[in-house]
Amino acid sequence: MLLDVDGTLVDSNDAHARSWVETLAEFGHRVPYERVRALIGEGGDKLLPQAIGVGKETPLGRAIAAKRRERFLRDYVPSLRPQPGARELLAELKRRGFERVVATSAEDEELRPLLAVLGAEDLIDARTSSSDAARSKPDPDIVRAALERSGRRPDEAMMLGDTPYDVAAAARAGVGTIALRCGGWPDERLAGALAIYDDPADLLRHLDRSPLAVEDRPSAQT
Questions:
Q1: 218 has a pLDDT exceeding 60
Q2: Where do runs of H (alpha helix) occur along 77-163?
Q3: Set 4, 11, 139, 141: catalytic member
Q4: pTM (whole model) above 0.85
Q5: Which CATH number fits domain 2-11+81-209: 3.50.50.60, 2.30.30.240, 3.40.50.1000, 2.40.37.20?
Q6: Which of 51, 57, 67, 214 gets the highest tally of CB atoms within 10 A of its CB?
């Protein structure tokens, strides 16, 4: 099972958007919250050019990204909470023999505290982050990196995500997606997912009738 974290397992999408809006304003760029919120799920390499026309690897882009990371970790991470049923879902997937591999566009410095918020480090088998991919979602790089880390073929894996960018990245890597609404995206934007549930708790309740049901995917253990 390939796992997104932000919005999927941890309720952090709004916090990411606010930290970007505040940091961009600090650098003189007034970008509406709604504009930034629609880009959450992509990495900074995608968000910055779309929001203000600045590349992440430019001096200005690096300065903005560093300040945004500092603000997110300092002001927002302490108040974050897991999505309903997130740890319980991971525990059940472990019990059923599914390998659990994080596939996120988050940076390493953010992924560690996010997993601490989740309180499920013991339920994660492997992790990949933005440092393992040249391009963030919706490009497939991070999904392919997670597949390589797991040693699985695309048809042996499933993605769990909450944004259109998760669905697109997984599809481009040949992986199906189970989507969750808890990240704030409407069903029509999650089109292409094999199934859509409210949150991890909802998926857990319907696990035996989901695309993860053993009888439906006997070889899918990632």
A1: no
A2: 86-95, 108-118, 141-150
A3: 4
A4: yes
A5: 3.40.50.1000
A6: 51
